[in-house]
Amino acid sequence: MATDDRPDADTVIAQALVPYGRMPAPADVAVLTDQLITHGQQAIARVQALGAADRAAFTNSLRDWEYLTAAGPTGTTAGVANWSYARALARVVRSLTAGLRAAP
Fold first, then answer.
1. Which residue ranges make up each domain of the chain?
2. What is the DSSP string of the chain?
3. With CB atoms 3.0 to 4.6 Å apart as the test, which of 39, 55, 67, 85 could cross-link to 9 if both were Cys?
4. What is the pLDDT of residue 1?
5. Are 53 and 59 contacting, i.e. CB atoms less than 8 angstroms apart?
6. What is each CA distance from 99 to 20, 32, 71, in whole angstroms?
7. pLDDT of the chain along its 104 residues, tens only?
8. Which residue in 80, 77, 96, 83 sits closest to 38, CA to CA?
């Protein structure tokens, strides 16, 4: 658990990336999405604090984050769109956090 009683990024990512057959209820997807956005914003702030040379390694993740947070969930079936959106956020947050662990 994170120090503020919210799940850490790895826990939230794991919850979002379960197989489709284990998709949580819509209310739980909303909570996951909120948690992923929070962890993503924290990771983005850490990436932006890096020097330009180190930040370059995050170009694709930053681009994906910008797109996802600007576009929001898309699709014709709201429940599936929200679940797919949460999973996309989780993949970007996973990439950001893994890269930050490896960063100097």
1. 9-102
2. --TTSSPPHHHHHHHHTS-GGGPPPHHHHHHHHHHHHHHHHHHHHHHHTS-HHHHGGGHHHHHHHHHHHHH---SSSHHHHHHHHHHHHHHHHHHHHHHHHH--
3. 39
4. 42
5. no
6. 26, 21, 24
7. 445 678 999 999 999 999 988 999 999 999 999 999 999 999 999 999 999 999 999 999 999 999 999 988 887 676 788 999 999 999 999 999 999 998 87
8. 96
Structure tokens at 40: 């993503």
Token pair recorded at residue 100: 């930050």
- CB atoms inside a 10 Å sphere around CB 86: 26
Q: State how far the Cα of 33 lies from the Cα of 12, in Å rounded to an integer.
A: 9
Quote the tokens at residue 37. Answer: 């956005």
Name the nearest CA neighbour of 61 among 23, 88, 38.
88
- Residue 52 confidence (pLDDT): 92
pLDDT of residue 74: 82
